[in-house]
Amino acid sequence: MATKLVSILGGTGFVGTHLVNRLRRAGIESRVLSRHPQRHRGLQAGGGVTLHKVDPKDEEQIHHALVGSDAVINLVGILNEGAHGADFRNVHVALPDRVVAAARRAGIRRLLHMSALNANESHGASAYLTSKGEAENRVHTLGKPAVKVTSFRPSVIFGPGDSFINRFDQLLRKLPGPFPLACPHSRFAPVYVSDVVEAFLRALDDKRTWDQHYDLCGPEVYTLEALVRRIAAAAGISKPIIALGDGASRLQARVLGKMPGKPFSYDNYLSLQTDSICNSNGLERLGIEATAIDSVLPYMLTPKASRRRYSELRRCIR
Ligand SMILES: NC(=O)c1ccc[n+]([C@@H]2O[C@H](COP(=O)([O-])OP(=O)(O)OC[C@H]3O[C@@H](n4cnc5c(N)ncnc54)[C@H](OP(=O)(O)O)[C@@H]3O)[C@@H](O)[C@H]2O)c1
Predict the structure, then answer these.
(1) Fewer CB in a 10 Å sphere around the end CB: N or C, the chain?
(2) 27, exposed or middle or buried, with CB in 10 Å at 0-12, 13-18, 19+?
(3) Would the pTM of this model clear 0.70, i.e. be above it?
């Protein structure tokens, strides 16, 4: 039977907001489980969305909120520990465990899980990536046999509301003088948020995706330095970008990791030691043509008139 109602954890975030809109256009209703539903009332504006206050530490509350859904999607993730006591193990491992247990009890047979490219339980030093890898392994194992699980492993995701392009845009604007860039040679294949949510939608009712893991990448590979230079050019910011060596990159991570909001942490530095690129792109396996960053970037960062053109472009893309 086709999915009609999906419960989403993390549905109020960057990817979640795009996903909820895509599901709405596909005629699928979203029930968004949030710690702070009052902050996200705007999500309900187009209809087809209900917000439910849930404490993610309480399996009973998750269970009650899930009852009656055809599927559950878990998008919850943090890039750094510390905000309101959040830590990687709790958010990336214990919460997905609870979601699987609650889904089983609620009789839900479908789970889409958001992981990250290079997530690996046993390899690598970044706690973000090892915890994501552990969670991914656990949800596939714990779900069996009742809950059919599919995982998605994107490279960095770009699009309206992202915290990648927009963050660099803000930093480039605010920091006086030359811009010191850590890990300039790290490589990425930035993937467009509309392509990511399309992957979720296509997988939802497709049995061939059960127990599969999809790496998701854009069509081009860039170094971080090349990306930041593109962002600066698209935003019309002209300033020298200083590519830092490894020692200075570590130092920057140590210093910025102590600042409020952790603009760049040592764990971020560690995760950037592995290139975020796909060997086999899951978008192709799902029949989705990956969108190039250059076809979107100019519309995200230029003045209002161009942003209007960007909404027209989005309508054309999807
Ligand atoms: N953005 C990227 O480039 C990228 C790349 C690869 C993988 N991913 C993964 O994709 C997922 C979505 O990313 P995103 O950029 O959309 O993230 P986001 O905008 O930060 O949203 C994440 C959502 O998770 C919930 N959340 C945050 N901290 C939490 C905590 N401590 N406990 C429980 N819930 C918490 C929040 O929902 P409420 O406040 O409503 O509860 C928030 O809306 C994450 O799992 C991320 O690791 C993202």
Answers:
(1) N
(2) exposed
(3) yes
